[in-house]
Amino acid sequence: MTDIVDQQTRSRMMSGIKGKNTKPELALRRALHSRGFRFRLHSGKVHGRPDLALPKHRAVVFVHGCFWHRHEGCRYATVPATRPEFWRAKFEANAARDSAVRTRLLEDGWRVATVWECALRKPEQVEASTESLSIWLRTEELQIEIGDNSARRS
């Protein structure tokens, strides 16, 4: 199957995809800040440069895009029809890196939260996700995963 746009256009489109300060990340940051939480952004002092680092709570937060980070069972985690082998390899590498970063952070004594993009699409979802994250930050639990109105703790 061939792409519907030329290579130059596709390159321009892909270069517009941001890795920092995305809409879901900004929404979560605003909501957490309004609840009194203070954090560092993309801290180079913390392994993996998490989206948010909350040293007071010894916690980090990653805001993951469902497509790029392969949110299991999510309707946004599709595989493009063009060059599926390339995309599978890319997604597997992303997932392996995410897992390695999470493991290292836990070994270093950090608690890790993953908030999926699908849980931050609507204002009411942002509110629910922020509430789950706020509760988790005040506990001693090591991990939480928040996606599409569900939160899994461990």
UniProtKB/TrEMBL annotation:
SUPFAM superfamilies tied to this protein: Restriction endonuclease-like
Q: What is its EC number?
A: 3.1.-.-
Task: State the superkingdom.
Answer: Bacteria
Write one Pfam family the protein is assigned to. Answer: Vsr
Keyword match Nuclease? yes
Provide the leader sequence positions: none
Q: Which UniProt keywords apply?
A: DNA damage, DNA repair, Endonuclease, Hydrolase, Nuclease
**GO function terms (MF aspect):** endonuclease activity; hydrolase activity
The biological process GO terms on file are: mismatch repair
Functional note: May nick specific sequences that contain T:G mispairs resulting from m5C-deamination.
Which protein family is named in the record?
A: Belongs to the vsr family.
- What protein name applies here? Very short patch repair endonuclease
Lineage at the top is: Bacteria, Pseudomonadati, Pseudomonadota, Alphaproteobacteria, Rhodobacterales
